Amino acid sequence: MDTKVISTGIRYSNLPESYVRPESERPRLSEVSTCENVPVIDLGCQDRTQIVRQICDACKDYGFFQVINHGVSREVTEQMLQVAFDFFRLPVEEKLKLYSDDPSKTMRLSTSFNVNKEKVHNWRDYLRLHCYPLDKYLPEWPSNPPSFKGIVRNYCIQVRQLGYRVEEFIAESLGLEKDYITKVLGEQGQHMAVNYYPPCPEPELTYGLPGHTDPNALTILLQDLQVPGLQVLKDAKWVAVNPHPNAFVINIGDQLQALSNGRYKSVWHRAVVNAYKPRMSVASFLVPSDDAVISPPKALTGYDGSGALYKDFTYPEYYAKFWSRNLDQEHCLELFKN
Ligand SMILES: O=C(O)CCC(=O)C(=O)O
């Protein structure tokens, strides 16, 4: 490749060799059907018990769900998607000033997933930001487009509130105190991946992101309404989760799988690419504070703790392992099994 990123504005007529998956690993798009019954949970509903019940069912049966009436204003989500497109439309030389393939950087533009570890690349560029505490990280965010910092700041504040609310519902759905998860996870970090998938000459041969689970506690995903691309593994089959107007997709991450002692599974998902149109998604990740010990409550392990599926660990320990691997290797939680 001539440049480090693929969002150059130039359309490729063939998929470069380094993106082509072996036959057995390809997405087989014609075999993927749309998931018609994705749980859509109305957080504006007055009946809290009903929300908790719906979340419990969705977490058990799917590992993800969508939320509507979630409290993040439509104006803010529209502005977020617009400024994300504006960023990726900047001249490539401008974007490359932010390029890094070092996962420990708190602000970077990068490509694929882990270019230094992976054998086959993914058809994605992404801007990765740390977002909390805002005062600490906002100064290092891109200042081009000029409106970027202000828009993303507003978005991050509202999404964080939503994430904390959802974690309270999830705690209740596990039969725990409402604030159990938010207390255990401490003052959670917040990261963002602004994912840009340019039009791809051969979507059948590659991925935007191959199947993976998220290493964090909770993911709040904003999908481009125009172009579908998210697929999740449901009952051993990949199904497409088409964008729902004004909804966020909420994914259970590895930390909640461990904290719930496997009651809830972090969901396998992947992003496929489109031959004609670029696609954008904005993933916000809530992550445990560095000193939080991820250990399930006694109510979920038996009172002597002997039923704990995983060893206790901290997020920095987990995250270091996660980035030392490639995305499609064995599940990172397997490395922490008792
Ligand atoms: O683009 C998508 O829909 C999925 C993004 C994703 O899985 C991620 O950022 O981890």
Please give the structural blueprint.
Layout: E1 33-34, E2 40-42, H1 48-61, E3 64-68, H2 74-88, H3 92-96, E4 107-111, E5 125-130, H4 134-137, H5 148-173, H6 180-184, E6 189-197, E7 209-212, E8 218-223, E9 230-234, E10 237-240, E11 248-252, H7 254-259, E12 269-271, E13 279-287, E14 293-294, E15 313-314, H8 315-323
Parallel strand pairs: 1-10, 2-3
Antiparallel strand pairs: 3-11, 4-5, 5-6, 6-13, 7-12, 8-11, 8-13, 9-10, 9-12, 14-15
Bound molecules: 2-oxoglutaric acid (AKG).
Family: Belongs to the iron/ascorbate-dependent oxidoreductase family.
GO molecular function, one term: dioxygenase activity
Domain Fe2OG dioxygenase: 188-288
Q: Brief overview, please?
A:
With 338 residues, the protein is an alpha+beta fold.
Please name the defining characteristics of this protein.
binds 2-oxoglutaric acid; single chain; globular; five-stranded mixed beta sheet; eight-stranded mixed beta sheet
